[in-house]
Amino acid sequence: MTDTRPLFRFCACCPAPCRSVLGTADELQHESRTPSSLSLIALAVIDGQLPWDGASRAALVRTEAAHACARACPYGHDVAATIDAFVAQRGAAHEPGVPGN
Length: 101
Ligand code: SF4
Description:
Layout: H1 5-12, H2 35-46, H3 54-60, H4 64-70, H5 79-90
The chain binds iron/sulfur cluster (SF4).
Iron/sulfur cluster binds at residues 10-11, 14, 16-18, 35-36, 69, 73-75, 77, 79.
């Protein structure tokens, strides 16, 4: 399995020049949906600072803006695809107290 930490760390600290592709009036211009924010959330899950629960999963499935940003990443990173794979690999979120989870 590929270690995604280096990519997520790089992207989390990047000033996000890719974001300009979204435009100023774009509804995808939410800080929590940028590749940097998604990377930070994924890192927190990997490092155990955030649980893999419904809230974490809900935050990480919002990759529409990050997919748009992928074509504008000057470093050639497709963070959205890596986040999608991360979510798929993690599977269903665990919700304590909910039967079947
Ligand atoms: S996708 Fe590329 S340009 Fe955008 S924040 Fe991440 S590393 Fe930076």
